[in-house]
Amino acid sequence: MEFVLLMASLMSVVALAIDALLPAMDIIGLSLGVTDPVENQSLIIMIFLGLGAGPLLFGPISDSWGRKPVVYIGFALFIIASFICIYAQTMEVMIAGRILQGVALSAPRTISIAMVRDIYSGDFMARIMSFITVVFLLIPTIAPAMGKWILDSYNWQAIFYVQLVFAVLISLWFWRRQPETLAVAQRIPFTKTIFYDGLKELLKYQRTMGFTLISGFIVGSFLVYLSTAQQIFQEQYDLKEEFPFIFAGLAIAIGTSTFLNGTLVLRFGMEKMVTTFLLGYFVISVLYVLLYFKGGNPSVEVLLLFFGLQFFAIGFLFGNLRALAMEPIGHIAGIGAAITGFISTLMSVPISTFIGRFVTTTALPLFIGFSICSLLSIGILYYLKLKANSEVVQHT
To answer: I need a labelling partner for 61 at 20 to 30 A (CA). Which of 167, 233, 283, 372 fits?
Structure first.
């Protein structure tokens, strides 16, 4: 139980750095001289750029030095990046700080996944990842409300100070209580070609690459929601005061399905769960597009219903897709987690940036993005199934 809580806490600093800032996006933008609300989306999107690039450094180092030193490096870098954000006077400096925050937080985020893979495998790994994700999702539930309270009581800079306090406390807990999970005998010497060798090894596993691409499409479509939620609910629906509670409610939808996944995945298996809820994700988004294609937003109750159904499906996808991608590559878990995370993030950032530009007066572009991303994911999944079936026939 402590392991689950600790791994979730390592990931939770990422959620805190993203979600606590949501209520303050427009105020931060104005204080930095930005008037177009679309430009404020970069405060969320750019941290994901760092989250994707950072593992390319931290993953190989963790396979060579061990998991724990990399987490310490990440938290130290996060402190520096947070002060850059606090004292930023322009949006360009703020974006640089956010990217660096993402790079820094990619260390505990990537290492937590590698540590889980060091200890567990198969459907049980997916079960552990589900429980970790449930605990982790408590942060998105409370972070926007906490961010709004801090903003109302102090200023937007105080949000970054609170993030720093959490990071320090979690790093101390990790230092005192978590043993190293990578034995010395299993460590890979750090060489100039470690990334190239890891990528070459990774490309041998089509299932790993396939599920990584699917993860990129799903994360990319969800990232559009994260970067536009404040704009949709506070500006399109004029629900500034209610926004933190709306965001919390939708996070609970993801948490509920993720918790259920921890039990159901052992009964049905990861791949069947992914197939079922990927189809559900597609059907729900297409239904919204068909109903509201002529333009205009529905009532907020209808929009929340569709969002809730979408995110309930997502809860069954995130952990399972990650576990399916990591399953064949336990022997290179650190560099494997780094490269797969980089690929999925490299996909998600341009996807979310492109779709987010169209979310100006209605939420319709968001659901069109959900539809396209899930359709492409279904195509990849179908290809993987055909490939697996053909290999079974050849062996028999």
So the answer is: 167
